[in-house]
Please model this.
Amino acid sequence: MYAIHPQLFEAQDIRFGPIDHEAHPHIEARWTHDAEFMDFMELGSAQPLSPEMVRVQYEAIEKEISTQKDLFYFTIRAKDDDRLIGKAILEYVNWTNGNAYLRLGIGEAEFRHKGYGSQALHLLLQYAFVELNLFRVTAVVPAYNEDALHLLQKFNFMEEVRRPNAMHYNGAFWDIVCYGLLKTEWVESTSI
Model:
């Protein structure tokens, strides 16, 4: 079988934490001005936000967390200085079927391509499968986001659905790809 990792919210270089309503709106608002991050993190239209608009989003997130119980939102923080560097989300949790959708992104450009996304995905999957006891997780990614596709494949996600030419990006149409991972597959491929 598998054992629960003693540090549920910590990896080698990162930790998960809650939203800081004072510091984080200014940081996340800055990320919304980063076209690359927004094009990779959001499937909808990117829109630059002010810190106040981000605060309003945080309030809506916390209201949904407290009432719906189908959203788990974590900030990703660097362990050495507790700086906000990204976000990791389990959303649209369907408790009846044990399924959730996941999203994660490293908003701070200097922390990209250094393994922090892998650490965050490991923590998020551990949380989904061990703490929440979900049966499967799903990730929906545009095909132009090659980094995300490689990360999901590294964690043994399988392509389940491909919607051809479903998204317009940089003057071209791209597929949207749905990847899935079952708890049984995750347990077989990982040692927690």
Notes: The radius of gyration is 16 Å. Helices lie at 24-31, 35-41, 51-67, 116-131, 146-154, 183-189. Residues 1-5 have pLDDT under 50 and may be disordered.
